[in-house]
Amino acid sequence: MIARTVLDRSLLRAGETVHMKHILRRHTRDGFAVPAAPTLPKAVVVRHAGSGQAYEKPLAWDGAGVAETQWSIPRDAKLEATP
After folding, report:
1. Is the pTM of this model over 0.85?
2. Which end of the chain has fewer beta carbons closer than 10 Å to its terminal beta carbon, N or C?
3. What residue segments make up the domains of the chain, in order of their start?
4. Nearest to 17 by CA among 41, 40, 46
């Protein structure tokens, strides 16, 4: 399967809300198709690569294999990579 998440912007700041659209497809002989509902993930995890800090949000998929979420970035969220 191929998953992509599109954010409403690339600059994220603590305390703001980011809107995300998640798109999931699977390869077929004829191109791409929407995966079967039982195979779709139930949640997305936003993880800061430097610190490992993680936040999980539930996903509700539509019939086209698209889910939308919004996440209020906590004030204490790490936003920069740690060296």
Report:
1. no
2. C
3. 2-72
4. 46
